[in-house]
Amino acid sequence: MKQSLIVGLCGVYLAMLLAPTVMADDCERGGKQRGHHGKMQQRQLVLQYMVEAGDITQAEIDERVAARKVLREELAALREAGDDQGFEEKKAAMKASMRELRAETKAYVESHEDLKSLLEEQRKAKRSKHRGHHDKD
């Protein structure tokens, strides 16, 4: 009994000690959850490069985002309606279109050496930041 009480109190004490560190980390991230956002940052860099190069407009990007949102809403509606076959067909079509878009983006990056080097620099910075974070532990 005494031992479990002592362990419990140690746990509470440890939580109180670590709480400011966790809260500080949240403040640094703007309160956002941790996650793997490297691909999202790379996608944003590619889109920004394409806009600056004049290969795509912001309106086209917004149109893609809106179309994807509509597709996801349709997918959710099919799931809620219980239409399993329609859901699987829509999901397969969505995956195929995403694979096609991913292949187009990859070909675009391969054809632009300066963009490729920017992405590599971003990856290296992310890796070094990640490694530095784990070295602190």
Describe the structure.
The longest helix is centred in the last third of the chain and has 28 residues, at 84-111. The chain has helices spanning 2-28, 38-53, 58-81, 84-111, 113-136. It folds into 2 domains: 1-32; 35-136, no CATH class. It is mainly α and 137 residues long. The chain is elongated and about 45 Å long. α2 (38-53) packs antiparallel against α5 and α3 (58-81) packs antiparallel against α4 (84-111).
Note the topology.
Blueprint: H1 2-28, H2 38-53, H3 58-81, H4 84-111, H5 113-136
Helix pairs in contact: 2-5, 3-4
- Major sheet description: none
Shape: elongated
The pLDDT mean sits at: 77
The radius of gyration over CA amounts to 23 Å
Query: How much of the residues is beta strand, in percent?
Result: under 5%
Task: Give me the strand/helix succession.
Answer: HHHHH
Number of strands: 0
Straight-line distance between termini = 33 Å
- Low-confidence spans: pLDDT under 50, at least 5 residues? 10-14, 21-26
SS content category: mainly alpha
Helix content: over 70%
How many distinct folded domains? 2
**Tally of individual helices:** 5
